[in-house]
Request: fold
Amino acid sequence: MTRLAALLDPSRIAVLDFLPDGRAGLLRLLGERLAGESAIPGLDAAAIAGALAAREQLATTAVGEGLAFPHAKLPGLSAARAAVLLLPPPGLDLGAADGLPVRLVVALVVPPDSVGEHLRLLGAFSRRLRDPAARRTLLDCTDAADLLRRLGDIDVLSR
Reply:
């Protein structure tokens, strides 16, 4: 059993009081959160944001219901990392099929040889956070500590 919080560092979680400047601004923020204090060559914020942007060019990772799951494979990374951003209302239009703006962003970066883990984690995040009660619990958070605590209760691989 893997809990979402096991993939997170508190520095990778934020409840924003502003909307990023479009998709590029969101990916920049995610790159900064995911890079953190990384000493891994080539894994600076710009490289991570670029990898996320390259994936977004294939198709939006906004899956509907106010959720987005940006993700990428990164050479040099030894383990999966996740970042979570909660955006203020009204959210950010990222082109979801249902037309709803995104408020909850769960970003995932994995090593290139972790295809199975990558797909399993993305599927688990999506299934679990599509549950209206789980999603509402996160959307109601008021600060990063509250968001981290509530994320700690989400089991991403049990369903």
